[in-house]
Task: structure prediction
Amino acid sequence: MAIDTVQDNKATVRRYIDQVFAAGNADAVDELLADDFVAHTYGPMKPGREGMKAAITRVAAGLSDVVMTIEDMVAEGDRVAVRLTSAATQTGPFMGIPPSGRRYEIEEIHWFRLRDGRIAEHWHQADFLGMRRQLGAGDAAAR
Result:
């Protein structure tokens, strides 16, 4: 795989994080994701682009002022790994947590597999316990 392709993959992932994750731009989903896109770690989700668009709608209903700061990005072949800091204000129900009006900031790790210039697969790990604590959610807030 040529260096240009690896750099193109990194640019695609950066655009995806900025336009889809942070801005919630559903039109960018059609441009950046493969038709058969699979999100491996989002829980029950319809495969393909429509599942991601539904996820964007759910997130937008619960969070505002979303900021995603890429700390590190490493790519090899068709894979891109990203370590980022995410922050948002919870303005509606989110992940079963009632609206708190609080802001959280957590670290996340994302893995992407690209095919033909589009994202085909995605995996992620995030500090959801830290997020729940910062939002004052139930048992997590007491720890």
